[in-house]
Amino acid sequence: MKKVLSILPVSIAGTLIIKGFSSGFKSNGCFVLEKDVRELTPEDLENFKPDIIFGYDYSYMHNKVLCDYILANQAKYQLVHYFADEPDGRYAYTDFPEMYNDYKNIDAYSFVWDREFCSQLPNSQYLPLAVNYKAYKIADYGEYAYDISFVGRPLTEKRQRILCRLIKEFGRKLNIFSYKPHFERSVEEIKTIGLLDARELEIYKSSFKGYLQNEKELAKVYSSSKININITLQGETSLNYRVFEVLASRGFLITDDVADLKENFDVGRELESYKDEDDLVDKIRFYLKYPGISERIIYNGFASVTKRHSYTARAKSILQSIKK
What we know:
By secondary structure, the protein is of the alpha/beta class. It has 2 domains: 3-130 and 310-322, Glycogen Phosphorylase B (Rossmann fold, 3-Layer(aba) Sandwich); 134-308, Glycogen Phosphorylase B (Rossmann fold), CATH 3.40.50.2000. The protein has 14 helices and 11 strands. It has helices spanning 12-27, 42-48, 64-72, 90-93, 98-104, 157-170, 180-193, 198-206, 215-223, 241-248, 261-264, 277-289, 291-308, 311-322, and strands at 3-8, 31-36, 52-56, 78-83, 109-112, 124-126, 146-151, 174-177, 225-230, 253-256, 272-274. It has a 6-stranded parallel sheet, with helices on one face. It has a 5-stranded parallel sheet with strand order 8-7-9-10-11, sandwiched between helices. β1, α1 and β2 form a beta-alpha-beta unit. It is globular, with a radius of gyration of 20 Å. The two termini are 15 Å apart.
């Protein structure tokens, strides 16, 4: 039985992903220990004696004492990392840009959510994200509470232009769930750029519905929204985590059309996509008018993630790839 140490990162999204992989390793017969990177010590490694150390992006490298210990004893483990951010981008190493060059010099297996980033890291493979659909199960899916929902950071001009277009077209039907400081920052940036007039900006402010802290809260919103919108912030070709978690929550999703979307999902049958702002507006109008069609798509999307996009399947791929 392989012993896997899963290092939970500081980020909430990263923690959800690593916990998902942990469940996948367990389903593949591994013994798994999860530890927060802020609490993990060299003594924990000495006591647990893992065969595999599994990290998110650069995870433990932010902790110099831990990183030095792991690298000094690297022959004892297989180091495996999953990248769900851009390897050479601000989201992967935040305030530590040196992490990118340091990481390239260690002996580790890298699995990357977007195939276009594989060239940035040695010994890396493309592996799409997945979802632990059981974590998004709620007791009562109930009635729709929201018309249009967006969950995530309303930051960058790309996202703000789309969200402001939805405010102009649909007004108070748009609901935004975000970390409050991020939303407040978006208000100031939208005001500075001049994307909305004074009246529209007040409607935008009223769209803020709070911050969702866990899978159950996310699932409740996704499943009770007539339409969930995804605006991919990172990546060139592949799918972010929101695509998988909306479908796992039995929610209806309209996501931006990226290259790998059709490779992973049957568009129009399991979810919907849009090519630009005008296309998104047209499709929102259509599905608000014909909810029966989106409800059939919801059923197919949920079936797809449970059968083909589980962490059990993804973890199995990793174990097979690193087998020596």
